[in-house]
Amino acid sequence: MRRLTNVIGFDDAPFGKDHRGDILLIGAVCSRTRLDGVVSGMIRRDGANSTDRMIELIQGTQFREHVRAVLLQGIAVGGFNVVDVRRLHEVLEVPVVVVARRRPDFVSIRRALTSRVRGADRKWALIRAAGEIERIGDVCVQRVGIERDETLALLRATTLHGHIPEALRLAHIIAGGVTTGKSRGRA
User: Fold this and answer.
1) Which of 27, 36, 147, 166 is most buried, by CB atoms within 10 Å?
2) Residue-range definition of the domain harbouring residue 82
3) pLDDT tens figures, 8-18
4) Which residues contact 12 (CB under 8 A, 6 or more apart)?
5) What average pLDDT does the segment 88-101 reach?
């Protein structure tokens, strides 16, 4: 099995429901469960730049050669700024795993997307293209470029507390702390 324990996990900073404009995106680079570095950039609320920004943040750092997988907590950041996980995988040439505590309600997601977000059809197509949701271990995942057994091994190797990989948990904590002055809630 490939060595996939060096990962980057991305999460967006909290923002108010009336916020328009840019939102902080944090990437936590971990070797297994040890934090090795942090990258940050801005994404547009409900925009279309999350994939490009993630690629730039990874390729533009010393961590590029070390990152063996990208972890996302949900397929969208900054509201409905949907990540093109297939493109992310193709450009970076590493697996991409979308992690969720529970199975997303796609009916509600599509309703919200089509009722208030520009580019809804394209974004919905990206969500569908990410693949089926499957339960692996204690979480639901969508995966690109990685087999089911490798995904389970990756999740186990990178999770320290609870069910969410440490890179995602740390990105969540850092994004909240930097933006609001304190972290809160579960990753």
Assistant:
1) 27
2) 6-180
3) 999 999 887 88
4) 23, 24, 25, 26, 43, 77, 78, 175
5) 97
